[in-house]
């Protein structure tokens, strides 16, 4: 089974054999959201998260500087990831026939 998501926010599980059909109808693989650091996080935890996510924190001198850079990087990523406004039907009208 594979989890897919639609522009509408709906998340569904589909058999692996049906993924190609659904992706042709504007569904994409679902990726769970990544937790974003906040002021309750320790500096080492923020640094580890930034390293894992590929966020450059060089030049940040304080915890707040690091959080500001992370927010700026997240905003830039959201702009890059933005999709068009084309709406497709949430679930395709028919499912593919089972593979034989």
Oligomer: single chain
Average pLDDT taken over every residue: 83
Largest sheet: 3 strands, antiparallel
Q: Structural class, judged by helices and strands?
A: alpha+beta
The rough form would be described as elongated
Give the radius of gyration.
19 Å
Characterize this entry briefly.
This protein is an alpha+beta fold. It has helices at 19-23, 43-53, 63-81; strands spanning 2-6, 11-14, 27-29.
Q: Could you characterize the architecture of this molecule?
A:
- The protein is α+β, with helices and mostly antiparallel strands and 100 residues long.
- The protein is 35% helix and 12% strand.
- It has helices at 19-23, 43-53, 63-81, and strands at residues 2-6, 11-14, 27-29.
- It has a 3-stranded antiparallel beta sheet.
- The two termini are 18 Å apart.
Features:
35% helix, 100 residues, 3 helices, three-stranded antiparallel sheet
Give the arrangement of secondary structure elements.
Blueprint: E1 2-6, E2 11-14, H1 19-23, E3 27-29, H2 43-53, H3 63-81
Antiparallel strand pairs: 1-2, 1-3
Helix pairs in contact: 2-3
